[in-house]
Protein: FHIPEP family type III secretion protein
Organism: Eiseniibacteriota bacterium
Amino acid sequence: IKLRGEEIGRGELHSGQLLAMGPGAPQAGLQGLAVREPVFGLPALWISADQRAEAEAAGLTVVEPAAIVATHLTELVGRHAGELLTRQDVQALLDQVKTTHPALVQELVPNLLTLSGVQQVLKRLLREQVSIRDMVTILEALADLVPAVKDLDVLVERTREALARTLIRPYRSPQGDLSVVTLDPLLEQSLIDAVAPGQEGRQRLVLDPARTQTLVDSISEAVQRALAVAQHPILICSQYLRPHLREFVARFIPQAVVLSYPEVTGAAVVQTVATVRSAAVAA
């Protein structure tokens, strides 16, 4: 699968066979080719159709080849949506909002923020698969924030807070509860202290290789523990640390969701299901 001529995803299908996937795939006693499922990297087996019932009885998810392509494409479109958003697309969105909220658009663009500036905010939101469907709320937030906030990173974070209900909706239980993975307070403070200007001048989380690997392992372990009791656990941290931790984690766990405390205030109950411990930053 390519985006503007560059490969962004790759997988292999076996015609006439089914993909049985899940943590127990290697031990299920099925006959087939052992592979990694291309979207989420789960252990999987290509099996013949007559083994479907046996695979499902073993608790594995069994899918047709066409479903794999559709899922892979959907995941990649979501992951790269920000790269697909052009200035012309943004102008079309603004024109649509202008039909119902003309004063809002006229106040914001170009008086307070350029078309390019709006595009950059939307691209940042899409990069973390945040829906931009509620353009009115996004533009209202920008119109309120831009006079006092000039830093793009801060502007995006404050806009995210205005979208708090939208942010947490995919991860809430039917009762409205939210399952979270927290950071040990000592770990969180250590990571805040480790935020520093990177090579390009932007603030980022700067850790040496040993601490990087330890932190990644600790987060992965905590998320795995959380998955045993929650379907959609999210990593939660302070408002200041969130963008830097998300940027760091995305390099190693692309599907990870990182939210700040102000962004989860709309949940009925926030339940901690795992904690990343402070040993992750031991010198």
User: Anything to note?
Assistant: Residues 73 and 258 are 23 Å apart (CA to CA). The longest strand covers residues 270-276. The radius of gyration is 21 Å. The chain has a mean pLDDT of 91.
